[in-house]
Design goal:
InterPro entries: PDH/Transketolase, THDP-binding, Transketo_C/PFOR_II, Transketolase-like_Pyr-bd. Residues 2-168 form the Transketolase-like pyrimidine-binding domain. Pfam families: Transket_pyr (PF02779). With 302 residues, the protein is α/β, with parallel strands linked by helices. The protein contains twelve helices and twelve strands. It folds into two domains: 4-159, Rossmann fold (3-Layer(aba) Sandwich); 177-297, Rossmann fold, CATH 3.40.50.920. The protein has a seven-stranded mixed beta sheet with strand order 2-1-3-4-6-5-10, sandwiched between helices. Strand 11, helix 10 and strand 12 form a beta-alpha-beta unit. The chain is globular, with a radius of gyration of 19 Å.
């Protein structure tokens, strides 16, 4: 099976052939995969070098000319390093584009903390009007990439990961998918953590929702899942900074007695390279750790 990043190359290369309005801006990362597309479309595949602020500035400028830009590099260099440009060149200028990241929270441990961005979604939350997609499988990544490009002139962030679920799920529409139904709580799994959540909650009387579009947060879907009888227990399992969506879930359930537990990547920096799986376990996001944490939170009988 190809990776999400490989699928991004394939899909975007095809879209460049299909639509003259599409432009791709790169900062060296993944450039080798796009060299055939650059030879076919040298005016619309632009590599600015290792200049991430320029990457975003060029993308914003292309959007002002009427093009639909896709910007790509590692998450830490796409959202964190050029955040001022994201804020101004897209938000302040009221332009649209698609930011497509790679490496997510800790997908390349050998790159060290400079190449990790667990706070990217939380950072974008400080800005208005961004849609955020978090696919959990290459097939989902393809569908969400196409949706992001077709989203008029909206501002969209697509967060790609080396982690993946074994099977794709339908991602038509923004609403979370109900994977299991139960009566003792709701567990919302985001993107590539679905398989771990399903393994962790096996045999537990809980509803499992699966979300690949996390912004805007779907208040109605969460309210429908918990019902209106209360009290409600909700666990959010996100592949980025723990608690990123806790406030959104609390707001959605403001008139329902409820508790929310936000699980995700911890704030403490892990200063050993290790492997992706070891980082997942260290942050308590492997199936065993999740089962312990979810069971301890839910009321007796779950």
């Amino acid at each position: 099976m190809d990776t999400m990043r490989e699928r991004f190359i394939t899909v975007t290369s095809k879209m460049l052939d299909e639509d003259p309005r599409l432009a791709l801006v790169l900062a060296e990362i993944t450039m080798d995969g796009f060299r055939p597309a650059q030879r076919r479309h040298p005016d619309r595949v632009i590599n600015v070098g290792i200049r991430e602020q320029l990457l975003v500035g060029v993308g914003g400028g292309l959007a002002l000319t009427g093009l639909r830009p896709i910007l790509h590099t590692f998450a830490s260099f796409l959202v964190e390093r050029p955040f001022e440009q994201v804020k101004l060149d897209f938000g302040h200028q009221d332009t649209g584009g698609v930011l497509v990241s790679a490496s997510a929270s800790y997908d390349w441990p050998a790159g060290g903390f400079t190449h990790m961005a667990p706070g990217d979604v939380a950072l974008l939350d400080t800005l208005d009007g961004w849609t955020v997609h978090v696919p959990g499988h290459p097939d989902e990544a393809e569908a969400l990439l196409r949706d992001a490009y077709a989203a008029g002139d909206d501002k969209v962030y697509v967060r790609l990961s080396e982690q993946t679920n074994a099977e794709p799920r339908p991602v038509t529409g923004a609403a979370p998918l109900t994977v299991r139904e139960g009566r003792s709580g709701v567990v919302l799994a985001v993107g590539p953590l679905l398989d771990n959540v399903l393994a962790a909650t096996e045999g537990m009387d809980v509803t499992v929702l699966y979300a690949t579009t996390v912004r805007p947060f779907d208040d109605a879907a969460l309210r429908a899942a918990v019902g209106w009888g209360g009290p409600a227990d909700v666990v959010l399992v996100e592949p980025y900074l723990a608690g990123t969506s806790t406030a959104a879930a609390n707001d959605a359930l403001g008139d329902v007695p409820h508790r929310v537990l936000g699980l995700g990547v911890g704030r403490a920096e892990l200063r050993r390279y290790g492997t992706l799986a070891e980082h997942t376990a260290a942050h308590g996001l492997d199936a065993r750790s999740l089962r312990e944490r979810i069971s301890a939170f839910l009321r007796p009988g779950a």
